[in-house]
Amino acid sequence: MFFDLYRPYTVHFITPEGEKIDVKATEGDTMLDLAQRYDIELECACEGSLACSTCHVICEQEYYDKMEEPTDEENDMLDLAFGLTDTSRLGCQIAMNKDLDGLTVKMPSATRNMRVDGSKPTHH
Amino acid sequence: MLSRQLQRNILKVAAAPSVRLSLAKQAPRVVLFSLRTFSNTAQKQNASTVETLTPNSDSLGFETTAIEKPGRPIYLDMQATSPMDPRVLDAMLPYLTDLYGNPHSRTHQYGWETERAVEEAREQVAKLIGADPKEIIFTSGATEANNLSLKGVAHFYKGKKKHIITTQIEHKCVLESCRVLQEEGFDVTYLPVQPNGLIDIKQFEEAIRPDTSIVSIMSVNNEIGVIQPIEEIGKICRKNKVFFHTDAAQAVGKIPMDVNAMNIDLMSISGHKLYGPKGIGAIYVRRRPRVRLEAVQSGGGQERGIRSGTVPTPLVVGLGAACKIATEEMEYDDQRISRLSKRLIDGIQSKVEQVVRNGDDVHTYPGCVNLSFSYVEGESLLMALKEIALSSGSACTSASLEPSYVLRALGADDEMAHSSIRFGIGRFTTEAEIDYVINHVVGHVNKLRDMSPLWEMVQEGIDLKSIQWSQH
């Protein structure tokens, strides 16, 4: 994309199937913003209002330690996430900054929005 | 259903003063029960005996007549279960009848009213232990809570931490959970206890490793009533960034418990151990610093996703009511139970020699009195004391003739472990019952000792340990 020239940071998404997608980000972009911008299948049932756990992503320990502590509200939603790990975060709550340049986030194999028929969620 | 004629005959017999008197003499105590007979005019004319008992008529046209019946044994097994407080039943009844909505139904009044009741109960449980209501997760009891705490934490952090610490005198469900985790590759340290049942704090601190994920030590032991130094343990765990779980089934509602003052991260609670209903319990899971659990049960994500499944409103309301009563009456109960406990111990020890109290004399819950009667087989004493409901160990293992593993951990030999009896005193135990128990225990212990050749030899000054017994 043309505007990628003005986006200084790189983020690596790993899909549930194991495919690696590299995207460019600017200061303040959330993982959810990036997923929607680059058409990555990261769900977003509550549209980033911190009321669901569908944008759950798993971060690398090194980068997880650089992030701000999750709030109680985010933790409460993470409790409901499928395949939770101790480096799990909600994509809508991770905002990019220079410390997170090169961050790799792994998307879990499923979400609480149960779909077993193979259909994919679409962004609103 | 009893036939009308039979009901009438029962009432006639029960009404006769001589019969009532003889029944009262036979039984250790007299228990009232209700017999309901259908009320109509014709029956009233025929059954004059019913009139003499001045029955109360209820809204359905039934007459409730209290009659006396030969008593059941005196109940002194409060560590196995406690009777439900009538006030708890009162709180539960509406949710067993009219208010039957699913508390997770968000679209109508039936769901809203039961959800409100569940949340109120959550607050009542939280208040009793100084927690935030959001930190209370309802379970089916303390066994599930213990399983969930240990397996949940161990599995969640298994990538980094594979070590668990517990004690040798924990409840079976904790020890079994640890054994399962051991088979999965986790490393478990079973701390020994001192002869008084308390852990050695220094030894505990030395057992903590960098890969220790959770420490599980019970607050009050169910067999000997010993109270572990929970506050000290909590401080050490917090300092070492290790999660601290305590099985508080025998402690909550009986001794003051404060999860923040004691640095407790996870706590198991049982409803039927604090005069609430069976089949309900709770687990306290700290939110800050956050404790993460891997759910054992998958489903609709109820109870913060930790324990899926529809919450049983009547039982939860019962647990809440039991906790509310405990919050208000714990101090009074404790004073009363302490007095009865002292009366029991002094009464027995003043009349019977060579009686040992198992556990610590100071750091102990007074409602749990475990006594070993030297040269008396515990099972024989239990059989002799048919009119008193007692136990020789935990209810889970009282059917096996293995000596108590708790008493073995205290260093008691098999003979002493086999001669122990647990007396459980509770909110509804009376002084008269304690006096009755003292007299019967003393009488039966002396009788059994009179039959024992070992006791005779000891009386003659023979050291039994010096005897070479021939093998059969």
TrEMBL record, chain A:
Its cofactor is [2Fe-2S] cluster. PROSITE patterns: 2FE2S_FER_2, ADX. Keywords: 2Fe-2S, Iron, Iron-sulfur, Metal-binding. GO terms for molecular function: 2 iron, 2 sulfur cluster binding; electron transfer activity; metal ion binding. Residues 9-111 form the 2Fe-2S ferredoxin-type domain. One of its GO terms (cellular component) is mitochondrion. GO terms for biological process: P450-containing electron transport chain. InterPro entries: 2Fe-2S_ferredoxin-like_sf, 2Fe-2S_ferredoxin-type, Adrenodoxin-like, Adrenodoxin_Fe-S_BS, Beta-grasp_dom_sf. Pfam families: Fer2. Belongs to the adrenodoxin/putidaredoxin family. This is 2Fe-2S ferredoxin-type domain-containing protein. It comes from Umbelopsis ramanniana AG. The lineage of its organism: Eukaryota, Fungi, Fungi incertae sedis, Mucoromycota, Mucoromycotina.
From TrEMBL, chain B:
InterPro entries: Aminotrans_V_dom, Aminotrans_V_PyrdxlP_BS, Cys_deSase_IscS, Cysteine_dSase, PyrdxlP-dep_Trfase, PyrdxlP-dep_Trfase_major, PyrdxlP-dep_Trfase_small. It is found in: Mitosome. Its cofactor is pyridoxal 5'-phosphate. The keyword Iron applies. GO terms for biological process: [2Fe-2S] cluster assembly; tRNA thio-modification; tRNA wobble uridine modification. Keywords: Iron, Iron-sulfur, Metal-binding, Mitosome, Pyridoxal phosphate, Transferase. The keyword Amino-acid biosynthesis does not apply. GO terms for molecular function: cysteine desulfurase activity; iron-sulfur cluster binding; metal ion binding; pyridoxal phosphate binding. Residues 74-437 form the Aminotransferase class V domain. It is an enzyme of class 2 (transferase). Its EC number is 2.8.1.7. Catalyzes the removal of elemental sulfur from cysteine to produce alanine. It supplies the inorganic sulfur for iron-sulfur (Fe-S) clusters in mitosomes. Belongs to the class-V pyridoxal-phosphate-dependent aminotransferase family. NifS/IscS subfamily. This is Cysteine desulfurase, mitosomal. It comes from Umbelopsis ramanniana AG.
